[in-house]
Amino acid sequence: MAGRNYAQSTNGEVILKYRIALSLAALALSAGTAAAQKPAGVELGVDAIAQIGLGDNSYSIFDIPSGLSRAGFPMNNRISIEPRGSLYISTGNGDTYTSYDLELGALYHLNVAAKQRQGVYVRPSLGINGVTGEGSYNSVFGEVGVGYKKPLFGQLGTRYEAAFFHNFNNGSSNGLEFSAGLSWFTK
Fold first, then answer.
1. Which pairs from 159-167 meet CB under 8 Å and 24+ separation?
2. Taking the mean position of all CA atoms in its chain, how far away is CA 60?
3. What is the reported pTM?
4. Which secondary structure element, helix H or strand E, spans residue 56, and what is its range?
5. Which of 48, 56, 109, 117 could form a disulfide with 64 if both were Cys (CB 3.0 to 4.6 A apart)?
């Protein structure tokens, strides 16, 4: 007994073969279209960072080159998920001091045609940072940045960003962060 989508005559085999061929052609066409729209490979990078604290908690930090590393994983041509992090451990005289920074952001790329390698992007993120050892603390922060990516050559590119961040702990402080870095795309 034939299914409801197939004819029950001797031409049923011809119709079935026609539908299979049409389905395979549609699948090949959609795969080719998807490959043409596939975003760039994973973006690995490191940045030089300058932070400026605002208000009563004013400070300046220059971290060149930064120990903060990042990896961007494309979800589609517009959005990539980007974890960033750093770990610093110092020991001496029987004391150990550890500083950490973990952050999860999402880049929204405004230029779809550039496949996340060039153009303006917006990056909101949430993170936690802290210090262990004498005077331990940790804090949660949020950040919103606007940046620009530009290819250099091959799989190497540059990235520039300005961001506003808010620390939800420790007196609820605000600040600005400026970064310039290098990115390497895996493909």
1. 159/45, 159/47, 159/183, 161/47, 161/123, 163/123, 165/141, 166/141, 166/142, 167/139, 167/140, 167/141
2. 26
3. 0.74
4. none
5. 48
